[in-house]
Amino acid sequence: MVVEMHAGLASDGGSKLKMLLTFVDALPNGNEEGIYYAIDLGGTSIRVLRVEVGAGSVIINRKVEHQPIPEELTKGTTESLFNFVALALKNFVEKEDGKDEKRALGFTFSFPVRQNSVSSGSLIRWTKGFSIEDTVGKDVAQCLNEALARCGLNVRVTALVNDTVGTLALGHYYDEDTVAAVIIGAGTNACYIERTDAIIKCQGLLTNSGGMVVNMEWGNFWSSHLPRTPYDISLDDKTQNRNDQGFEKMISGMYLGEIARLVLHRMAHESDVFGDAADILSTPFILSTPRLAAICEDDSPDLSEVRRILQEHLKIPDAPLKTRRLVVKVCDIVTRRAARLAAAGIVGILKKLGRDGSGAASSGRTRGQPKRTVVAIEGGLYQGYPVFREYLDEALEEILGEEVARNVTLRVTEDGSGVGAALLAAVHSLNR
Ligand code: ADP
User: In ligand 1, which atom is closest to the CA atom of 256?
Assistant: First the structure.
């Protein structure tokens, strides 16, 4: 991971790790005051937020509204999509503050963007089912600003970020020792604060803080050192983004159930553990990750929850206890590998920052004291699946050693992609 981080920082295309510049060179520290808005666009619905903050890391008030995006807008024109977003914000702002208020806006746009400044960046390509050809290559913040102007709203984008950067911002708002953020949900990604002089691909880059948040896009990490099983290969073969997002396909919620399904399918094929009732195991994605989690977390002596899931969802009735144990074991191994890889990735970041307790040059110690290090973390898989968390923590301690691990805290934040973006708007607004 560290080798690939260096390669991605050295040149564009130098690694599968994109190591994208975010131009975020200052993070909220709790002194922000005022009312800020955020828009979170990254899936099937948009969210608009209003966040009121007071000095001392106090969030005085937070309001959120969801609006599903009509399917046709995800395949229509740039103007119609951004008009829709602007209108949702306009209605929200007018209800909350009246229409003439001038406010800073954080725009969380969770699609691949090549950032030009903290408040502008062009769309590289759409993902997640969106396909609006004429947006590709355009500055999405400008698209939104134009739509906001068209509907007469006095609000402009001051920070264009992705959800990982929002999570880091929110983590840093509460705790200034936060140096990185990780998301482990349906997908996975991470970002961290890098020294600008280490960002070789952008020589001469100067920031006031001497640092900049780098969006690793770590879901796409790959290395020949990473052991890949036939199940990983089968899974990859059937995805639309073949050969991409390799790390994500071993770790995140979208895939864990499917990996276990592929293992069980092979077992069914090559043995008679499931009798002849296992046809359904050939159906892709029939085992969801929350069900895999429920299988692992069944602590009843007769594994009754496992029996229920096998019966109701996989149409495998009457599996004997021994078979149910086998299913638990498979799900457990898939979970454990994912959690340990995520932990290894986190240690990679700490190592790059000299905070893993090893290197001599930047040993992560000041006057003999190990530096406290906080990593903000979010995502449905991490937050909803205690066994995953337990394995991740265990692996962190195993790799770092007890003494160093004691100084590393994983802190769960809530809604970094919304609140974090509003806080970044505060930090980067011209009125600061
Ligand atoms: P996103 O990554 O799209 O923002 P979330 O962070 O909400 O979404 O994560 C959703 C994912 O987390 C789901 O795809 C699911 O795989 C996983 N997940 C949610 N709850 C659980 C759970 N209780 N156990 C295991 N996995 C879960």
Answer: 16
Decide: helix, strand or coil at residue 267.
Answer: helix
CA-derived radius of gyration, the chain: 23
Task: Find the catalytic residue in 47, 50, 291, 355.
Answer: 47
Measured in angstroms, how far is the CA atom of residue 383 from the centroid of ligand 1? 8
Q: Which domains does the chain have, with CATH numbers?
A: 18-174+415-428 (3.30.420.40)
From the list 407, 308, 391, 428, the residue with the least C-alpha distance to 356 is: 407
329 phi and psi angles, rounded to 5 deg: -60, -45
DSSP 332: H
- Distance from C-alpha of 77 to C-alpha of 83, rounded to nearest angstrom: 10
Question: Annotated catalytic, 237?
Answer: no
Q: What is the pTM of this model?
A: 0.94
Ligand 1 mean position, distance from CA 264 (Å): 22
Q: CB of 42 closer than 6 A to ligand 1?
A: no
Q: Please give the Cα distance from 45 to 68 (Å, whole number).
A: 4
**Chunked in runs of 10, what are the mean pLDDT values of the chain (432 residues)?**
97 95 96 95 92 95 96 95 96 85 91 93 90 95 97 93 96 98 96 96 87 96 94 94 94 97 95 84 95 98 97 92 97 98 98 86 52 96 98 98 96 96 90 43
